[in-house]
Design goal:
By secondary structure, this protein is an alpha+beta fold. Helix content is 56%, strand content 20%.
Length: 254
């Protein structure tokens, strides 16, 4: 009867749909698994350099350290700074892993947070940080710690990758809190603009390393902004500088 044919067709369609969903699930899992594998392999690679530097200074100290105070001093300083580097790497890798679990979201005054972070940087560096506070109070929904991390990463990068003054702004635009950091540094090549948000990606490895970079800052910032339903973007011009912009939905402004 026509009814039977109809039922058969329906179950065939259902099986087809199920198969499609199942295949999509598998692809998704595979994709995640591959990403995890790449992350673990990149992370091991990044840790290997400081470990081998520490190891070679330890051996140097053992062989030639006795009665050689300048070598002892140099080695200890190197070991100390490589240990700092490893601990920063581990801390940032943990931070990336933690961002996956959703943080507790509260109303956060981002105007206050930006002002506080700028003050901290002004105290720590003798660099000009221009900041015009347009907004007195600007509430967004989020984690204070994580948002502070984003602000910190962008200001830190602007200072690291330029020598001139930097400009920090916070304004309200179309129900979005728009935070931006502008620098007058070397700029980022157009073809690398997307890639800098990838884990461990660095335009200039040596420069990043010299300034204590890990290549994880922007990946962390991007993950946090995404978690906050926001957007992060960059525009850059070689030899002119870069502007990083983060926009987040406003809950309340004054
Ligand atoms: P890093 O720890 O190396 O600074 P990030 O993830 O924060 O890692 O940034 C990735 C790379 O993007 C940097 O190594 C640098 O090459 C580039 N970059 C980031 N911010 C800037 C900037 N303001 N000006 C120029 N290059 C930048």
């Amino acid at each position: 009867s026509w009814k039977k044919i109809d039922v058969d067709k329906r179950s065939r369609d259902e099986i087809y749909e199920m198969e499609k969903t199942f295949n999509e699930m598998i692809d998704h899992l595979k994709d995640n698994f591959e990403k995890q594998e790449i992350f673990v392999s990149d992370a091991s690679h990044e840790l290997k350099t400081p470990i081998s530097i520490v190891k070679s200074y330890a051996q140097l100290l053992e062989r030639r350290g006795t009665g050689n105070p300048s070598l002892v001093k140099e080695s200890i300083e190197a070991i100390d700074s490589e240990a700092d580097r490893m601990s920063k790497l581990v801390e940032q890798m943990l931070s990336l892993a933690k961002n996956k679990e959703s943080a507790v979201m509260k109303k956060v005054d981002i105007a206050d947070l930006v002002e506080e972070t700028v003050t901290t940087f002004r105290g720590a560096y003798s660099r000009e940080i221009q900041f015009d506070q347009v907004q007195r109070k600007l509430l967004v929904n989020g984690s204070r710690d994580q948002l502070e991390q984003v602000i910190y990463i962008l200001i830190d990068n602007a200072l690291k990758y330029s020598n001139e003054k930097i400009e920090v702004r916070l304004e309200a635009n179309n129900n979005q809190a728009v935070f931006s950091v502008r620098d007058y540094g070397a700029g980022i090549p157009a073809q690398e603009l997307d890639r800098i948000f990838e884990r461990f990606y660095r335009v200039d490895k040596a420069r990043s390393r010299d300034t204590g970079g890990t290549g994880l800052g922007l990946a962390i910032a991007k993950a946090i902004v995404k978690e906050h339903q926001g957007k992060i973007a960059v525009i850059s011009e070689m030899k002119e500088g870069s502007t990083f912009t983060v926009s987040l939905p406003i809950v309340y402004s004054a």
